[in-house]
Write a structure and sequence with these properties.
Length: 818
């Protein structure tokens, strides 16, 4: 019996509560002044103590900086639905990166079961069932740059180049504000599903160290994460906060018995092997009482290795590589990566009555692609020699953003509170490049595993973006608040965008209130979506991407790319029926037109011709021509996403038996795909599989409920996660429908339960130890039939966004404060 069914009856009676709560010391420094993110703070105790998350009954009113430019706005009185997750909550999940922690804590956030190629390395997430590019990520309120590595393979995240949250040290996070509302009128492109704002620590004293070590129930995937955070005073006017972090995770293997060898020896499916080192700094210094110099930044180096599919001896012989690999081989893709982001700015108060903030942010990501334990079969056939290690090329992007933000409150006699007026401008320059690999990496069939980028694929692209916005907010009467925002953006490659937003909230009394928003939004096509091209061959198929604006794509019917546009509506209710019971209910609908998808699918002879037009030679592929396919990005459809978020929390005090903070949250979500575009030949640009990737791969609902019990030095946290059902259209790899682009296997993934459990003990005032497990019952996604998995290389439906295929993860965590 699964653990979910064992514990569910014990927990089902809990009051609904938010799965996350603000940290008591969020954003605080020792002076009790505002930190660089603008949060009001409370002075810390002078004695360092490491404890589990504080009881929600003791939490102060949390000032927020996301979704509002009113400096007095709090989470409890937010005009839009917003969730605050404390840094200690993230680190208490046993996860060593931000995304995996957020998946454990927020029902609105989901992730793929497992990606492929470089897409498996990137920490991409879905908010409210939309893809990662449709969620804007900020750090201390400033736009964060995206990764340069694109998700190539078919998946719900195909084509995305999102912000990689693994590049931000989890030890540096004070708290995260998740705005679950369209916010393009406030922040610009990408904020269709919402905004994730990572607020960095700003304490000016103390040293905190954490070590997490764990592994999976299968006996693999050992993971270790060590980090430290330290705060320092800069004289009497400033602070410096530093974080450093090391993480290593071993690869896992989640494949079946290979019929070619009779053994479970394919390492392609599972998490990649990753080693990461990160550093972060955050500082602020008051030059005068009214002017502050501030800055923050991160630098991360990551080495990742991803195993490609096994070339068994029979396959190796067919490719003519037996002389090089008589026992078969399995290529390994490598991706050394450097990622950085730095912000420097000045902000001040009372300049002719205005508060102002002038900043410049530069960030970038550089990925070097490699391959070892590989070969070029055609080069070997022609010359009797092939290298086993290849340089495949590189991806790079850079984003330089400059902002001026100005705000002032104006007292007007007919308004209950001052009219908060904010306005400003932004200039951004985006660049993206693809560098070609060494000649033998792309010669004819190219390197096995992942073919090198060709000179024809190489690109250097750039664009300029200019924007201006205005924002008004006030309380018209005591219980009625209204916010208005408008924004204009100009892209020199895709034109202009105008967006607006109106939000309102009315509190009938202290027990009940209502809120709602209506907004328009947009997402400009990324430079990667416009320019990316690649070709990949495996033993059984060959596939790849053709640049959307290339002659080859236009020959297949591509009209080029234009921005997505969206219309968002939400309505919510805030309930406080008891002193310690808080409930939020928010419904939403998100309509997206001209959604950018990986459509324009072509296979067989048409794909071969398109590759030839793009300068790619497919003659080296040893399989049948029918197994050759290609795609290009296109504005392929419109979608309507509707959903409901319910969150609440309640605190119980049992006296000498301790306190329990009950919590639960649920998200219901459904997406319909409509208005599918057609190619020049009249065929739909999306097939059934691509439609399901957008509409049914995300769980129809996700529920998190449980509680944290505290008594003396002991804490016990138990949470149950229920993932709703998903459905997939899987490709046949054998039989009469093998590699068909019209006939698919309809896979139904039933709901899954996962139990997370942690027991902690305060050994010393400065030392806290915890033993825990995520998915302690070792639940897995649904199994897939062998005729949808090449040589049983997939046991589970990896297109789904339910629970991870890795199974139970068990860990020991130690926190030390000095």
């Amino acid at each position: 019996m699964r653990s979910g069914y064992i514990l569910a009856p014990l927990l089902v009676g809990l009051s609904f509560s938010t799965a996350v709560a603000a940290e008591t010391t969020s954003g605080q420094d020792s002076s009790g002044e505002k930190n660089p993110s603008g949060n009001k703070t409370v002075a810390k105790k002078s004695v360092p103590v490491v404890r589990a998350e504080q009881s929600v009954a003791d939490e102060p009113e949390q000032v927020i900086v996301t979704g509002t430019r009113d400096p007095s706005q709090t989470a409890a009185r937010s005009i839009s639905p917003i969730t605050i997750i404390g840094g200690n909550q993230l680190r208490s999940t046993g996860m060593t990166d931000i995304r995996e922690a957020l998946v454990q804590l927020s029902p609105s956030i989901s992730r793929e079961v497992n990606g492929s190629d470089q897409g498996s390395v990137i920490d991409a997430l879905s908010l409210r069932g939309l893809n990662a590019d449709q969620t804007l990520v900020l750090v201390n309120g400033k736009r964060r740059h995206t990764t340069a590595a694109i998700a190539v393979d078919a998946s719900s995240q195909q084509g995305t180049t999102p912000v990689d949250l693994d590049m931000i040290p989890i030890s540096a996070v004070d708290h995260i504000e998740i705005l679950q509302d369209g916010a393009a009128a406030q922040y610009g492109s990408d904020a269709i599903a919402g905004v994730i704002n990572v607020i960095l620590k700003s304490n000016n004293h103390g040293l905190h160290l954490q070590a997490v070590n764990g592994g999976y129930a299968a006996g693999d995937g050992f993971t270790t994460g060590e980090n430290l955070n330290a705060g320092f005073k800069l004289g009497h006017r400033g602070f410096l906060n530093l974080s450093a972090e090391f993480k290593h995770q071993d690869r896992t293997q989640r494949t079946g018995i290979d019929p070619r060898t009779g053994r479970n020896n394919d390492l392609a499916t599972g998490q990649p092997q990753v080693t990461r080192e990160s550093i972060e700094t955050n500082f602020g210094y008051h030059l005068t009482d009214a002017i502050e110099l501030y800055g923050f930044g991160t630098f991360t180096h990551r080495d990742a290795e991803r195993w490609a599919f096994l070339r068994a001896p029979s396959t190796t012989a067919a490719d003519g590589l037996s002389g090089m690999y008589p026992n078969g081989f399995e290529p390994v893709e490598t991706m050394p990566e450097n990622d950085y982001g730095f912000t420097l700015g000045f902000r001040g108060k009372r300049l002719y009555g205005f508060d102002w903030d002038l900043s410049s942010t530069i960030g970038g990501d550089h990925d070097t692609l490699g391959d070892y334990n590989s070969a070029n079969a055609d080069a070997y056939k022609e010359t009797g020699y092939s290298p086993s290690r290849f340089y495949l090329g590189n991806y790079s992007n850079q984003q330089w953003t400059n902002n001026l933000d100005i705000r002032r409150g104006v007292d007007l006699p007919f308004l209950y509170s001052p009219l908060n007026i904010a306005f400003g401008g932004e200039y951004r320059r985006d660049t993206y490049s693809i560098g070609s690999g060494e000649p033998l990496s792309y010669y004819l069939s190219g390197a096995q595993g992942y073919q090198g980028e060709t000179p024809q694929d190489a690109v250097n692209a750039a664009r300029h973006v200019a924007a201006a916005y205005v924002d008004f907010s006030t309380q018209i009467v005591k219980r009625w608040r209204v916010d208005l925002a408008g924004r204009f953006e100009h892209y020199d490659d895709v034109g202009n965008a105008r967006t607006g937003k109106i939000s309102t909230r009315y509190d009938i009394n202290r027990f009940i209130g209502f809120r709602g928003t209506a907004s328009t939004g947009f997402r400009a096509p990324t430079l990667a979506e416009q320019n990316f091209a690649a070709f990949i061959s495996s033993p059984n198929y060959a596939t790849g991407q053709i640049a959307a604006n290339s002659p080859a794509a236009r020959a297949l019917g591509s009209p080029g790319l234009r921005p997505e546009t969206s219309t968002n509506f939400s309505a919510g209710m805030i309930l406080n029926p008891l002193p310690r019971l808080h409930i939020n209910v928010d419904g939403y609908t998100i309509y997206i037109k001209h959604r950018i998808v990986d459509g324009g699918y072509a296979s067989g002879a048409r794909a071969v011709e398109a590759y030839a037009a793009a300068g790619v030679d497919t003659s080296g592929f040893s399989g049948d021509e029918s197994a050759v396919s290609t795609n290009y990005f296109t504005n392929g459809a419109s979608t309507r996403t509707t959903g409901l978020d319910i969150t609440a929390r309640y605190s119980s005090d049992f006296g000498r038996y301790g306190k329990v903070d009950w919590d639960a949250a649920v998200n219901f979500n459904h997406t319909n795909v409509k208005n599918i575009a057609r190619t020049g030949e009249g065929a739909p640009v999306l097939n059934a599989q691509q439609i399901s990737l957008m509409s049914t791969e995300n769980p129809s609902n996700k529920l998190i409920f449980g509680g944290i019990w505290r008594q003396g030095k002991w804490t016990v946290a138990v949470h149950e996660i229920r993932y709703g059902h998903t459905t997939s259209n899987l490709t046949f790899v054998s039989g009469s429908h093998a590699f068909s682009t019209t006939d698919f296997y309809h896979q139904i993934n039933r709901p899954r339960f996962v139990t997370n459990l942690e027991v902690g003990y305060q050994v010393l005032p400065q030392l806290h130890l915890a033993l825990g497990g995520n998915n302690v019952g070792n639940a897995h996604p649904s199994r897939v039939p062998s005729f949808t998995a090449d040589y049983n290389n997939n046991l589970y439906d990896t297109l789904s966004q339910q629970l991870s295929e890795e199974g139970g993860f068990y860990y020991l965590r130690a926190d030390l404060a000095l």
